[in-house]
UniProtKB/TrEMBL annotation:
Name of the protein described by the UniProt record: CRISPR associated protein Cas6 C-terminal domain-containing protein
Organism from which the protein derives: Fulvitalea axinellae
Keyword Iron-sulfur among UniProt keywords: no
Higher taxonomy: Bacteria, Pseudomonadati, Bacteroidota, Cytophagia, Cytophagales
Protein family per UniProt: Belongs to the CRISPR-associated protein Cas6/Cse3/CasE family.
Domain CRISPR associated protein Cas6 C-terminal: 111-249
Length: 267
């Protein structure tokens, strides 16, 4: 299930770094560790977007000017979602970069129809490679049209599905259909306008800073329904638990897909 968390922004005009996903990852992990459920503290199957709101770019970063900003948080476990929200809403306010945010409400996205062919957009960067220490492989550019690009995403998705432990060996074997096809018209337009769809992002893991290449572009994914549902809920690629690889359905109207989400404020 995917939940939109709405925050009141107390200091309109404040900013975060342009690449602020690592700050969100630190906030999310801090909220998870704040609680007292040792099992859920270790739960890795969640994903979240970048912060959404009315913004302007300056040399100091990304400035938010809307009175409210939104974060999409997603996990297949209602227990985990409720645990995270319960701990978050215990906090009177949180700081993200220079932003001062007050948790206000949570909205549940109604489940869309998932098929074996889905066109997705990236609402946070898609990372292919998880590098080792002192390893530059994570920054390597891989052309989205190549089999290597799709194969790396297939391999990481299968590893995560196996670790998730909800599917039998027979079901896992049936998930061999997997092909990502980028929107070539979009990529050509980006190249013609000399803009970028792939950038280097910082990631922190065990207090070590890594640099990874993230991709943001629309694509069509051919896969079984179970795989489509998993990547839509849990993200795709590397570092999904750090907010990378969150997808949304292309050409959908997000404003008509939410209802108020009720969760127990106390465990």
């Amino acid at each position: 299930m995917r939940i939109r968390i709405v925050f009141i922004l107390k200091n309109k005009g404040a900013n975060v770094p342009f690449h602020h996903q690592f700050l969100l990852a630190q906030l999310v992990k801090g909220v998870i560790l704040k609680g007292d459920n040792e099992e859920l503290k270790k739960f890795p199957f969640y994903n979240f977007s970048g912060l959404k709101g009315q913004t302007k770019i300056s040399r100091n970063g990304l400035h938010f000017f809307s009175s409210r900003v939104t974060l999409v948080f997603s996990s297949p476990s209602k227990e985990f979602n409720d645990y995270f929200l319960r701990e978050l809403f215990k906090m009177q306010q949180v700081e993200l970069g220079n932003l001062i945010l007050v948790p206000e409400s949570a909205e549940l996205e109604t489940a869309p129809e998932i098929k074996e062919v889905m066109k997705f957009i990236c609402i946070s960067p898609l990372v292919l490679i998880q590098p080792g220490f002192n390893d530059s492989q994570g920054k390597r550019f891989i052309t989205p049209e190549t089999d290597e690009f799709s194969d790396l995403l297939y391999e990481s998705t299968m590893r995560r599905l196996a670790s998730y432990g909800q599917f039998s060996e027979e079901q896992m074997a049936s998930f061999s259909q997997f092909q990502l096809v980028p929107d070539l018209n979009y990529l050509n337009k980006i190249k013609e306008s000399q803009k970028k769809f792939a950038r280097i992002y910082p990631v922190y893991d065990q207090d070590v800073k890594y640099e990874v290449r993230g991709y943001t572009f629309p694509f069509t994914l051919f896969a079984t329904k179970e795989v489509q549902e998993f990547v839509f809920t849990c993200g795709m690629g590397a570092y999904t638990h750090k907010g990378f690889g969150m997808l949304d359905i292309a050409n959908s109207d997000p404003s008509v897909r939410t209802v108020k989400y009720e969760f127990e404020r106390e465990s």
